[in-house]
User: Fold these one by one.
Assistant:
Number 1:
Amino acid sequence: MARIIILIICLAMIGFILWWFFGKHEVASATADVADNNQSVDVEVKGGYSPEVITLKQGVPATLNFTRKDASSCLDRVVFSDFGINKELPQNEQQSIEIDTSKPGTYQWACGMDMFHGKVIVE
Ligand SMILES: [Cu+2]
């Protein structure tokens, strides 16, 4: 009987490990709402970015509103190298960043040390 229980536990652990490494993890993503020729998305910065994948409509002026709720200095800057943007994110303050949506594509952003990432998809 004990062997069967151990076997079941082992199988459950193997299943968990497989899921952990090979399963599809949900990435928080968002699509901007377009209103009055404008689109914006709020991004929470806390141990990473949420959402971390943002879809924007091409040709519509876009603003990403970053709010850093994380005290660590790691996330105190946000860098969009494709757009030459490197902005400070004061803690608990909303920082709006305008994104050029004139060209479709995928644009990465990162923290100042290139450790945390997110991306904007313009389509
Ligand atoms: Cu960092």
Number 2:
Amino acid sequence: MNKKEQLELYHEMVLIRRLEERGAELYQQGKIGGFMHLYIGQEAVCTGLIAAREPNDRVITAYRDHGVAISCGISANEVMAELLGKATGTSKGKGGSMHMADTSKNFWGGHAIVGAHLPIAMGMALGDKYAQRSNVTICMFGDGATNIGFFHEAVNMSKVWNLPVLWVCENNEYGMGTAVDRASAVSSIAVKARGYDMPSERVDGMDVLKVYEASRKAVEAVRAGNGPMLLEFTTYRFRGHSMGDPERYRKQDEVKKWQENDPIGIHRKYLVENKLASSKALDEVDAKVMDEVEQAVQFAEASPEPTLEDLYADVYAD
Ligand SMILES: Cc1ncc(C[n+]2csc(CCOP(=O)(O)OP(=O)(O)O)c2C)c(N)n1
Ligand SMILES: [Mg+2]
């Protein structure tokens, strides 16, 4: 990865962070409805992972999807407008926080039912294999999703049919208020792949360059026809499960410990220590992102709501 690309990773992580911080404020002001799950703390995963894909590789994820949308190339304006339920949003204001999508950018959503998008990912990969296309489907999900039948059915069939899928678990240590150890027989999700004779790896998900390296190798191995693989990224969400989570299931000391391992701080330190950017230049990136996010808020607030007729559009495919 060249210097420009490494700097872009920094910009992208800061953009995701600030956009969500601003989103949280707007939520508190009552401008955003429904559930909203922040990705803060996990930015290195989507940023490093999606930097490793080719544009024709598909990405699909669960409801913690704002960062994934940005990494797939959806603009801050469209993400913010979607959060506010505006017609200019990436899902025309009808999806909201949990259902960001743009198939033109090969981002297949944003899915709210835990684990339900894994069989969809498998189906997309089956379609690609059948049509002899060379793309890889990257399917992201949480640790909690791996305790659900969907996970085992989809991962099993992907191996039986040797499908081009990269399964990516973001192990952030909790599924809502339940710690991994309380719900999963094994605390490393990578181990679960062994039951399906599938290669897997557990990688530090707080370091964007480690995420990128592991993802690049995995995407290319899958593309080469070696069959599906599973990557587990160890990460942590700094905020509650969703807005309004009282967080009684974890101690603030634990959160603080992980915050010392902030993915943005880690990459910033790397860039400065390796003289790829000065602190001043990175402060300028931070300032530019603040403007970008403010513009996105203005764009979203000035945008129209979807009309009543819009309710009936895009319900069925032609
Ligand atoms: C089938 C189903 N069961 C329960 C829920 C409620 N629920 C929403 S998120 C969640 C936790 C999932 O945890 P994980 O997969 O680790 O993802 P994370 O929230 O940590 O990103 C649960 C149980 C749901 N949305 N769908
Ligand atoms: Mg989780």
